[in-house]
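SECTION: protein entry
WANTED: fold as C-alpha coordinates:
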Amino acid sequence: MTTSKEIRNEPIWDKAHSSYIRIIYLQNGYTLTGYSKKVGQNERRDKSDLLSNWILRDLTNGYLDKSTTNPKITPIDRIEYYAKRGDSVEHILNLYYEFPEWISTKWLENKKLVSFINRFYFLLRNGKEPALIANELQVRTRAPKQDPLDFSLRRFSNMIDLNAYVVRLRTTSDLPTEAVDNFYRNYKEKHFKL
Protein backbone atom coordinates (compact mmCIF):
# COMPACT_ATOMS: atom_id res chain seq x y z
CA MET A 1 0.00 0.00 0.00
CA THR A 2 1.38 3.42 -0.91
CA THR A 3 1.00 6.54 1.16
CA SER A 4 -0.25 9.82 -0.19
CA LYS A 5 3.32 11.21 -0.09
CA GLU A 6 4.54 8.39 -2.32
CA ILE A 7 1.65 8.91 -4.72
CA ARG A 8 2.29 12.62 -5.11
CA ASN A 9 6.05 12.08 -5.19
CA GLU A 10 6.71 14.76 -2.57
CA PRO A 11 10.09 14.91 -0.86
CA ILE A 12 10.29 13.46 2.60
CA TRP A 13 12.41 15.99 4.48
CA ASP A 14 14.75 14.97 7.27
CA LYS A 15 13.83 17.82 9.60
CA ALA A 16 15.96 16.55 12.47
CA HIS A 17 19.26 16.18 10.57
CA SER A 18 19.13 18.96 7.98
CA SER A 19 21.79 21.68 8.16
CA TYR A 20 19.54 24.33 6.60
CA ILE A 21 15.90 25.36 6.46
CA ARG A 22 14.45 27.48 3.67
CA ILE A 23 11.13 29.31 3.72
CA ILE A 24 9.76 30.73 0.48
CA TYR A 25 7.30 33.57 1.03
CA LEU A 26 4.99 33.79 -1.97
CA GLN A 27 3.29 37.04 -2.95
CA ASN A 28 -0.11 35.36 -2.59
CA GLY A 29 0.51 34.93 1.16
CA TYR A 30 1.45 31.24 1.18
CA THR A 31 4.76 29.87 2.40
CA LEU A 32 6.75 26.82 1.36
CA THR A 33 9.18 25.31 3.85
CA GLY A 34 12.01 23.03 2.81
CA TYR A 35 14.98 21.32 4.43
CA SER A 36 18.44 20.69 3.00
CA LYS A 37 18.33 16.94 3.59
CA LYS A 38 15.94 14.21 2.56
CA VAL A 39 15.44 11.06 4.61
CA GLY A 40 17.98 8.40 3.70
CA GLN A 41 20.29 10.77 1.78
CA ASN A 42 23.51 12.47 2.76
CA GLU A 43 24.31 16.15 2.65
CA ARG A 44 27.50 17.68 1.27
CA ARG A 45 30.24 17.89 3.85
CA ASP A 46 31.05 21.47 2.89
CA LYS A 47 28.02 23.36 4.20
CA SER A 48 28.77 26.53 2.18
CA ASP A 49 28.68 24.44 -1.00
CA LEU A 50 25.47 22.76 0.18
CA LEU A 51 23.74 26.12 0.64
CA SER A 52 25.17 27.56 -2.61
CA ASN A 53 23.87 24.65 -4.68
CA TRP A 54 20.48 24.87 -2.99
CA ILE A 55 20.21 28.55 -3.91
CA LEU A 56 21.07 27.63 -7.51
CA ARG A 57 18.29 25.01 -7.52
CA ASP A 58 15.86 27.66 -6.27
CA LEU A 59 16.93 29.80 -9.23
CA THR A 60 16.63 27.07 -11.86
CA ASN A 61 13.30 25.91 -10.42
CA GLY A 62 12.02 29.45 -11.03
CA TYR A 63 11.71 30.81 -7.50
CA LEU A 64 14.53 33.37 -7.83
CA ASP A 65 13.94 33.96 -11.54
CA LYS A 66 11.79 37.08 -11.79
CA SER A 67 11.06 36.43 -15.47
CA THR A 68 10.19 32.73 -15.16
CA THR A 69 7.58 31.47 -17.58
CA ASN A 70 6.80 28.40 -15.46
CA PRO A 71 3.05 28.60 -14.76
CA LYS A 72 3.47 26.53 -11.57
CA ILE A 73 5.68 29.16 -9.94
CA THR A 74 3.96 31.90 -7.97
CA PRO A 75 6.03 35.09 -7.69
CA ILE A 76 7.89 35.36 -4.40
CA ASP A 77 8.26 38.12 -1.87
CA ARG A 78 11.50 36.64 -0.53
CA ILE A 79 13.28 33.42 0.40
CA GLU A 80 14.69 33.07 3.92
CA TYR A 81 17.55 30.70 4.70
CA TYR A 82 18.32 29.44 8.20
CA ALA A 83 21.21 27.40 9.63
CA LYS A 84 20.09 24.59 11.91
CA ARG A 85 22.24 23.06 14.63
CA GLY A 86 20.34 20.68 16.85
CA ASP A 87 17.34 22.56 18.16
CA SER A 88 18.77 26.02 17.50
CA VAL A 89 17.98 27.87 14.29
CA GLU A 90 19.87 30.93 13.05
CA HIS A 91 18.51 33.24 10.35
CA ILE A 92 21.31 33.70 7.78
CA LEU A 93 19.95 35.75 4.90
CA ASN A 94 16.96 36.68 2.77
CA LEU A 95 17.12 36.57 -1.00
CA TYR A 96 14.93 38.80 -3.13
CA TYR A 97 14.80 39.00 -6.92
CA GLU A 98 17.00 42.08 -6.93
CA PHE A 99 19.28 41.78 -3.87
CA PRO A 100 20.39 39.73 -0.86
CA GLU A 101 19.82 40.86 2.72
CA TRP A 102 22.26 39.49 5.31
CA ILE A 103 20.40 38.99 8.58
CA SER A 104 23.28 37.59 10.62
CA THR A 105 26.44 39.67 10.26
CA LYS A 106 28.38 36.66 11.53
CA TRP A 107 27.74 34.99 8.17
CA LEU A 108 29.40 37.91 6.38
CA GLU A 109 32.65 36.42 7.71
CA ASN A 110 32.07 33.30 5.58
CA LYS A 111 34.07 34.55 2.60
CA LYS A 112 33.18 31.57 0.43
CA LEU A 113 29.43 32.10 0.82
CA VAL A 114 29.65 35.89 0.51
CA SER A 115 31.70 35.54 -2.68
CA PHE A 116 29.13 33.12 -4.10
CA ILE A 117 26.21 35.47 -3.30
CA ASN A 118 28.06 38.44 -4.82
CA ARG A 119 28.81 36.52 -8.05
CA PHE A 120 25.25 35.14 -8.12
CA TYR A 121 23.69 38.62 -8.03
CA PHE A 122 26.27 40.05 -10.42
CA LEU A 123 25.21 37.45 -13.01
CA LEU A 124 21.49 37.99 -12.28
CA ARG A 125 21.81 41.75 -12.66
CA ASN A 126 23.60 41.33 -15.96
CA GLY A 127 20.70 39.33 -17.39
CA LYS A 128 22.37 35.96 -17.59
CA GLU A 129 19.99 33.02 -18.02
CA PRO A 130 19.35 30.92 -14.87
CA ALA A 131 20.67 27.73 -16.47
CA LEU A 132 23.92 29.49 -17.41
CA ILE A 133 24.29 30.96 -13.92
CA ALA A 134 23.77 27.52 -12.37
CA ASN A 135 26.24 25.94 -14.76
CA GLU A 136 28.85 28.59 -13.96
CA LEU A 137 28.44 28.63 -10.18
CA GLN A 138 27.44 25.07 -9.27
CA VAL A 139 29.87 23.32 -6.98
CA ARG A 140 30.64 19.91 -8.42
CA THR A 141 32.39 17.14 -6.58
CA ARG A 142 35.80 16.47 -7.98
CA ALA A 143 38.17 13.65 -7.21
CA PRO A 144 41.15 14.86 -5.26
CA LYS A 145 44.15 15.49 -7.47
CA GLN A 146 46.86 12.88 -7.00
CA ASP A 147 50.38 14.04 -6.25
CA PRO A 148 52.45 13.04 -9.33
CA LEU A 149 55.45 12.36 -7.09
CA ASP A 150 53.67 10.19 -4.53
CA PHE A 151 55.52 6.90 -4.27
CA SER A 152 53.67 5.51 -1.24
CA LEU A 153 51.26 3.41 -3.36
CA ARG A 154 52.22 1.03 -6.13
CA ARG A 155 50.93 2.54 -9.39
CA PHE A 156 53.15 0.79 -11.95
CA SER A 157 53.44 -2.96 -12.44
CA ASN A 158 56.88 -2.99 -14.06
CA MET A 159 60.00 -0.89 -14.66
CA ILE A 160 59.04 -0.17 -18.29
CA ASP A 161 55.87 1.63 -17.13
CA LEU A 162 57.72 3.49 -14.38
CA ASN A 163 60.41 4.63 -16.84
CA ALA A 164 57.77 5.82 -19.33
CA TYR A 165 56.03 7.80 -16.55
CA VAL A 166 59.30 9.44 -15.50
CA VAL A 167 60.07 10.40 -19.12
CA ARG A 168 56.62 11.94 -19.36
CA LEU A 169 57.12 13.91 -16.12
CA ARG A 170 60.46 15.25 -17.38
CA THR A 171 59.09 16.33 -20.77
CA THR A 172 55.57 17.58 -20.02
CA SER A 173 55.55 18.79 -16.41
CA ASP A 174 57.12 21.80 -14.80
CA LEU A 175 58.42 19.73 -11.89
CA PRO A 176 62.11 20.18 -11.05
CA THR A 177 64.36 17.46 -12.45
CA GLU A 178 65.77 16.74 -8.98
CA ALA A 179 62.26 16.07 -7.63
CA VAL A 180 61.46 13.69 -10.52
CA ASP A 181 64.80 11.88 -10.02
CA ASN A 182 64.12 11.61 -6.29
CA PHE A 183 60.65 10.15 -7.00
CA TYR A 184 62.19 7.62 -9.42
CA ARG A 185 64.80 6.44 -6.90
CA ASN A 186 62.32 6.18 -4.01
CA TYR A 187 59.64 4.45 -6.08
CA LYS A 188 62.11 1.92 -7.52
CA GLU A 189 63.58 1.20 -4.10
CA LYS A 190 60.18 0.73 -2.45
CA HIS A 191 58.35 -1.26 -5.16
CA PHE A 192 61.03 -2.90 -7.33
CA LYS A 193 63.63 -4.18 -4.91
CA LEU A 194 66.10 -6.44 -6.69
Remarks:
- The longest helix spans residues 111-125.
- The longest strand covers residues 76-85.
- Residues 143-194 form one domain.
- Strands lie at 20-26, 31-35, 76-85, 88-95, 100-102.
